[in-house]
Design a protein that fits this description.
Two copies of one chain form a homodimer. The first copy, chain A, is elongated, with a radius of gyration of 20 Å. Chain A is mainly α. In chain A, helix 6 crosses helix 7. Chain A is built from eight helices and no strands. The N and C termini of chain A lie far apart (56 Å). At the A-B interface, helix 5, helix 7 and helix 8 of A face helix 5, helix 7 and helix 8 of B. Chain A binds a DNA duplex (19 and 19 nucleotides) through loops.
Chain lengths: 207, 207
DNA sequence: ACCTGAACACCGTTCAAGT
DNA sequence: ACCTGAACACCGTTCAAGT
């Protein structure tokens, strides 16, 4: 798809490194995502990567941004009510993260280091401000939503890994595909309902 | 305080290792908490640690459990209403975590690996079940609360570290000690209010 | 602009052997 | 019961030098 694809076979550009690193992540998981392994599978010396990224942390930040970019490029319906937009944004973020192995831990780490992955927070914030909430409240509410989405996705991907390693399959009392999604929806509803109580148009507020 | 304290000067027991490792964590941070460094500061070979812990992950799990144990040994008032008990439990958990450098990331990691640190979830769960909620709902609600507390504490400790490293001091538009606490209380209230809407005694429920 | 080759200062873990 | 000594198979990062 890119202009000079297939012509250069030795030299890589930044985007090539990101793309290959994402493959390594999805095939081998975050613990095996080392600079040396990315370089080896890319047919290059480890030191070559430092031409494109000043550190491993910055490479991880680029991976997180790319994962989120690939999964959240669809614009939500601007005519939908704010709570539907917020719920949709959280679901899109979750889906983007679940599309890559160990992406939840990766995004959480990058987010914790403050290097990137701010786009989801900004979008949730904007939706809440557009809905009439105070900006400072919108920031805190968006942060709470993000903590929930990242935490839930992290738990989910860990259990996937634990089961694939060969441990007992947890508690499959539930069809296994509807179970996790239901608990995600429930937690999300708790927070969205709490936000709704603070809406300027809310009739009554709790302590 | 312990029976043979001060008598043995070469051989360590499990609790000694945990105690010393907590010191290393608090003085040097999680990135520098290596088996080799713990061993060195303890005056012992790295391999000696494997007599007490089968792996680094299990040592980290013991550290997390100890941090939580030290910070949450006070029983909440059993006569208080459920929401006060839940809020108190979340605050105690947060205080326990903020007492040690990088403890949020440590506890989150251990929790993600499923090796320990289940006590806080169990307590929140019990409080909610005692309050009359369905056990399955109580589990999901407790999980949502835990994700929030851990996520918020992780953000907070990262910003502490970022500021101590020498970066610009973020956004000190607020007295800096009341600011973070207020955003924690707000996020916590969002979730608790969402839970309250699901209480059996609630008059009306949202979608 | 992108890469090599070699080095530096580390890791977690295992294992035979000691006391 | 607890530790040593030595090894194995790795890390991230730097830097002069090449093309």
């Amino acid at each position: 798809m890119s202009p000079d694809d297939g012509m250069s076979h030795m030299r890589n550009r930044r985007a090539d490194v990101v793309d290959h690193a994402l493959g390594v992540l999805d095939r081998h998981g975050l613990p095996d995502l080392s600079m040396r392994r990315i370089a080896a599978e890319l047919g290059v010396q480890p030191s070559a990567l430092y031409h494109h990224f000043a550190s491993k942390q910055l490479l991880l930040a680029a991976l997180a941004d790319e994962i989120l970019r690939r999964g959240t490029h669809t614009q939500p319906d601007p005519d939908a009510p704010w709570d539907e937009r917020v719920r949709g944004g959280c679901h899109a973020l979750r889906d983007a993260i679940l599309a890559y192995r160990d992406a939840a831990e990766l995004v959480a780490t990058v987010h914790a280091f403050g290097l990137g992955a701010h786009e989801p927070h900004r979008r949730l914030c904007d939706d809440l401000v557009d809905a009439g909430f105070e900006p400072s409240f919108a920031r805190d509410a968006a942060t709470t939503l993000l903590h929930f989405v990242l935490g839930h996705a992290t738990d989910e991907q860990l259990h996937l890994q634990a089961n694939s390693v060969g441990a007992i399959d947890d508690a499959p009392l539930v069809p296994a595909d509807s179970g996790r999604g239901a608990s995600f929806d429930l937690g999300l509803s708790l927070i969205v309902d709490g936000i709704r109580l603070r809406h300027p148009s809310a009739s009554a507020a709790a302590s």
